[in-house]
Amino acid sequence: MGPYSVIIFIPVLASIVLFHIISWQSIHWWALALQMAWQTACHLWLLYKEYYLQEEITLRLFVMISALMLLTQKITTLAMDIDERKVKIIPVDGGMKNWFFSGSAQQILMFLSYLLFFPALLGGPLCSFVEFHNQVSESHRRNYPCFKQVTKGCLFALILQTLRILVSINISSQMSLLSCRHLNCVYTMWTTALLFKLSYYSHWLLDESLFRAAGFLKENQVDGFQATFYDADIWTLETTHKISVFTRTWNKSTANWLRRLIFEKCKVGSLLITFAFSAWWHGLYPGHVFGFLCWALLVKADYRIHKYFNPCQQSWCRRLLYRIFTWLQTQLIVAFLIMAIEMRGFKMIWLLCSSYNCFFPILYCLSLISFIKRKT
Questions:
Q1: Residue 26 in contact with residue 4, Cβ under 8 Å?
Q2: Is 306 a catalytic residue?
Q3: Of 96, 116, 136, the domain-final residue
Q4: Which of 63, 86, 116 lies at the terminal end of a domain, its last residue?
Q5: Is residue 116 helix, strand or coil?
Q6: 251 in active site
Q7: What is the C-alpha separation between 293 and 277, in angstroms, rounded?
Q8: 266 within a domain of the structure (yes/no)
């Protein structure tokens, strides 16, 4: 990151100070507000450089903003742990000499270690401070990391990257969304979204392998700590016929963070508010706002549709046809959402909405409207 690392260090040090001057009852909202204000300012600075100054965003800037977004997760998670009394702040009392040898200094060092833990800032899964502390405390009992799991993760990531290259070669010889016509646009959208998904899957596997190499994600541990780290449940993501299941499984640690931070604390419109906050957290590009708000509506429609059609699946033939149709629908809707979110701009939104690709989300939205009217 080079000089941009200062943008990471400032909120880390500020959050440590905040934890010691704000009461534990209100620390959660203070940490969330200040960290999101800092992150939003950085996102606006990037938008200014990219669109107004027409400057190319360098790799260092991308790494910096990604690390800052993940740091937001860690700071707010620690603040929620303090708010829920899972972590208690040791007050800073006495002179400098007494403070240095006190438990407060040790706790601050642990906070710094947790917030600046580099495998997590590079894209690794999220864990709470308590889990991190327990893993570090027990590290002397483990003689070596799980090399078998690390090797397996790296091998799978290599296979996925190879598959991604093969798919990209095939796409390069096909039409793009700018020149495609009719049903060819659906195929182009699906294959392009597949490239993004393969890239995410391989990165998640490498991130998990890095965590294992650092001594985390112990082998033969099924419950608790390990269960929160499986961001790359590829089988579930690619075989599910429910958008809601895909949403809960996609980047599971971030989904759990959003559920705990926003969804469980909102009494009205929790689903829509959660996705709106996700768009804000991602940077408020036009594609982010459009994509995440559409995602919220489609998840709501997905709940209604499956609840309505479940009693109709009496025979195995009906169940099979229903699963095939809803699986195809889920795959194409997910491709639509990924394209809107990843491409970010108004131009891509217009290309998606003016082609056959918009048929699939519109079908679910019309179903949601019909269910609401029927209920009223």
A1: no
A2: no
A3: 116
A4: 116
A5: coil
A6: yes
A7: 10
A8: yes
